[in-house]
């Protein structure tokens, strides 16, 4: 009796996995790209490969628009955008908002330093 119960449970689990895999493969539309604003928390969407989603690789954000928001209040907007885009392309993320209090949300961005002055942070 117990063996039949285990077999039934295993078959049910295999069926659910097959249904989920078919649903992922049948969905041709990528998830909508999330635009980061000052008030929103950053949300990563899953990267679409040819017919399956990869949970291991998050896509790179739209660096120019994310950096435009990040550098919106900076007094040297052009330099801020330039450095932000460099950091975004290396790290794959940009902290939301314009202040320093959200830097920790993107650890790579937060800890990257200027190679000529290791005591100065590279990313705005």
TrEMBL record:
InterPro entries linked to this entry: GASA (IPR003854)
Keywords for the protein's UniProt record, in alphabetical order: Signal
Superkingdom: Eukaryota
Region named Disordered: 30-62
Keyword presence, Signal: yes
Residues making up the signal peptide according to the UniProt record: 1-26
Compositional bias per record (Low complexity), positions renumbered to this chain: 30-57
Sequence similarity: Belongs to the GASA family.
Protein name: Uncharacterized protein
Organism: Miscanthus lutarioriparius
Source taxonomy: Eukaryota, Viridiplantae, Streptophyta, Embryophyta, Tracheophyta
């Amino acid at each position: 009796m117990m063996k039949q119960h285990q077999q039934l449970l295993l078959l049910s689990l295999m069926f659910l996995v097959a249904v989920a895999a078919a649903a992922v493969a049948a969905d041709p539309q990528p998830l909508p790209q999330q635009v980061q604003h000052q008030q929103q928390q950053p949300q990563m969407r899953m990267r679409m490969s040819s017919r399956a989603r990869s949970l291991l690789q998050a896509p790179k954000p739209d660096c120019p628009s994310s950096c435009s928001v990040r550098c919106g209040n900076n007094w040297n907007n052009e330099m801020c955008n330039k450095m932000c885009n460099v950091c975004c392309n290396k790290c794959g993320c940009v902290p939301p908002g314009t202040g320093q209090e959200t830097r920790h949300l993107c650890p790579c961005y937060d800890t990257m330093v200027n190679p000529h002055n290791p005591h100065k942070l590279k990313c705005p």
